[in-house]
UniProtKB/TrEMBL annotation, chains A, B:
One of its GO terms (molecular function) is hydrolase activity. Keywords: Hydrolase. InterPro entries: NUDIX_hydrolase-like_dom_sf, NUDIX_hydrolase_dom, WH-like_DNA-bd_sf, WH_DNA-bd_sf, WHD_NrtR. This is NUDIX hydrolase. It comes from Cryobacterium psychrophilum.
Length: 233, 233
DNA sequence: GCAAAAGTGTTGCGGGTACACCCATGC
DNA sequence: GCATGGGTGTACCCGCAACACTTTTGC
């Protein structure tokens, strides 16, 4: 078979985690970036990623580079978009298949950070290499849009969680307060929550119920059940 | 710069048009396929597409192959998904950036058709080459989902149209009847329609108003105005 | 008891659906 | 006039936002 093109194929990932903001009690979205150690854009911050190995699935390559930069495993990973503008990388044509990922907040606290890996507040990014600012902006829009109609918010949390914890994730992502009463009813009537029967004690108020998500598909958040979700590859 | 991967980069397009179905008065979704003239899958039907030229934008490559197979220009073109499973093409790794397109129905009637290009009803496809059946299924899901919340249906029509024509497009895509009265109000209150003042005469009933779409953005169908739409590249 | 957050009840508004009804044209 | 689709009016239902209220804990 003859390969007639020479564009390089890269895979990059926008990784989101929730972190407590300084001064503000609210959690905000943060993401890890890596400093480029070679041309082009040497010294600038960029999304984690790399060339696509011949024998590796696209999503696997995204999860791997994610792990290599943060030492974390994603709880959610989905293809975002493929960026391939002719001029987006100086010198050579590069087509980047970009994924976006969510990682658990408590794990993100002990994520790797070093000279060439640093976490940034998602809405206060410096000028990034290539078209990565535009990519992050689009990923943020997708995250905020999808949180409103899908059940991805729990990817920031552990297996079990209280409704208040889940509501705080929504509030942090959407940047607006939500009514606790209505939030509770909306999720309870969605049928995706399972009451574990356990409670969280210790706080000086009524103990909150612990929930977990119903994994029996049918609630994937993509149209009517049975509809094709975005391919998982 | 060192290119460290050798996966081949292809661009393919799922092209939709509405055509009158035999016997049934309703229009249904059709799409053009090309017969493969070489291995692998020689003789089988496949999506139009080709290798990505070094200096061509992704969307341009999609529009070009679309034009080469159908002699048509798309009225709507959007990136669908990038398919890159390791085993999806026998022998060599192929990553396909897939677009989906809508073409006008009246033009589709005079679209090119020949020995190696043929139109098929979208829900009665034969077994296609590679993973193209899965790709079409996903494109159909995206089209049907997006018609319900976005304003893409007019891409099947000309510059001006009656509300009945637009409703028939929705009905054909969604495969269910819609109430004419409510359909009218929903669209009128959406603020995206502009009354041209002209009417369609000649039928033996009250003449229908001709509308066109308001092009002054702000109604792109992607979240709140100003939100990043899927990159247009 | 008091503070604080969990959890419940209730009301009203708005968008969508169903369906009855009037309007304008060709024949 | 009559048939046919264009176009309007209206009542109902349901989901959601607002907000008052009750419950259960720690101190």
């Amino acid at each position: 078979m003859t390969v007639v093109n020479h564009a390089a194929l890269a895979v990059s990932t926008v990784i989101f985690a929730l972190r407590p903001d300084d001064a503000s009690a609210l959690k905000t979205l943060w993401l890890p970036l890596v400093r480029r150690t070679r041309q082009p854009h040497e010294g600038q911050w960029a999304l984690p990623g790399g060339w696509l190995p011949d024998a590796e699935q696209l999503a696997d390559a995204a999860a791997r580079t994610l792990h290599e930069t943060t030492s974390l495993a994603p709880t959610y990973l989905e293809q975002l978009f493929t960026f391939g503008d002719v001029g987006r990388s100086p010198g050579h044509r590069v087509v980047s298949v970009v994924y976006w990922a969510l990682v658990q907040s408590d794990e993100a606290a002990r994520a790797a950070e070093g000279e060439n890996v640093r976490w940034f507040a998602a809405d206060q990014l410096p000028g990034l290499a290539f078209d990565h600012n535009k990519i992050v902006e689009y990923a943020l829009w997708r995250l905020r849009t999808k949180v409103e109609y899908s059940r991805i918010a729990h990817a920031f949390l552990g297996d079990t969680f209280t409704l208040t914890q889940l509501r705080e994730v929504h509030e942090a992502v959407l940047r607006r307060p939500l009514d606790p009463a209505n939030f509770r009813r909306t999720l309870e009537s969605s049928g995706t929550l399972v009451d574990t029967g356990r409670h969280v004690a210790g706080a000086r108020h009524r103990p909150a119920r612990l929930y977990r998500y119903d994994d029996s598909d049918a609630h994937s958040g993509h149209g009517p059940s049975g509809a094709p979700a975005p391919p998982h590859t």
